[in-house]
Amino acid sequence: MTANIYLVKALDYYPYNLEEALESLNYAMAYEENNPIALCLMGRVNLEIFKDYPLANSYFREAIAANIDYLETYTYFLDCLLIQEEFEEMEKLLVFARKLKGIDRGLLFYHEALLLEKRLKFKKAQKAIKEAMLLAQTGSFMSDLEEMKKRIEKKNQL
Fold first, then answer.
1. Do 9 and 20 form a contact (C-beta atoms < 8 A)?
2. How many C-beta neighbours within 10 Å does residue 123 have?
3. How far is CA 64 from CA 12, 29, 76, 132, 146, in A?
4. Which of 6, 15, 49, 113 could bond to 128 as cystine, CB 3.0-4.6 Å?
5. Any idea of the CA torsion for 152, 71, 91, 48, to the nearest 10 degrees?
6. What is the rounded distance in angstroms from the CA atom of residue 84 to the CA atom of residue 95?
């Protein structure tokens, strides 16, 4: 129970008060070292703040091992793999994540499109964007997809 109090504080502080977030996160992990939410947040800190991608990658793996059904981990892990250009592993994670109940499939197609764009496979990326658009549930996500679609169309014309 104490771990959850510190975890809630860490989530509340992140990313605006990093010092307090890290202190609370460390306390939470001291009470429960295999908490998937804490491990995912530690991965995010290393991904987004410290840019320590291998360490972030390690935390995301631990988070998934601790609880395969904590779905938030997958988005950040996919971002990390894309940055590290771990394309084969990213493909495997996408295939695996699609089997999970409750996961945002539109977001998975978005990540697939990013991967295909990095690989210069623009026509396939456009198909993935179309799938993501069909599954989009918010106007802001749809806007992001429309911008991505325009960007990839421009690249396809080069």
1. yes
2. 9
3. 22, 16, 11, 24, 31
4. 113
5. 60
6. 19
* Degrees, nearest 5: CA angle 137-140-40: 80
| Structure token pair of residue 141 | 């996500």
pLDDT band at 3 (very low <50, low <70, confident <90, very high): confident
Reported pTM: 0.95
The answer to whether the beta carbons of residues 78 and 113 sit under 8 Å apart is: no
Do 132 and 94 contact (CB within 8 A), yes or no? no
Phi, psi of 51 (to 5 degrees): 55, 30
CA-CA distance, 83 to 138, in Å (whole number)? 25
Tokens of 21: 């977030």
67 phi, psi to nearest 5 deg? -160, 100
pLDDT digits (tens, 9 = 90+) for 20-45: 999 999 999 999 999 999 999 999 99
- Do the beta carbons of residue 40 and residue 73 sit within 8 Å? yes
| Separation between Cα atoms, residue 91 and residue 81, nearest integer Å | 10
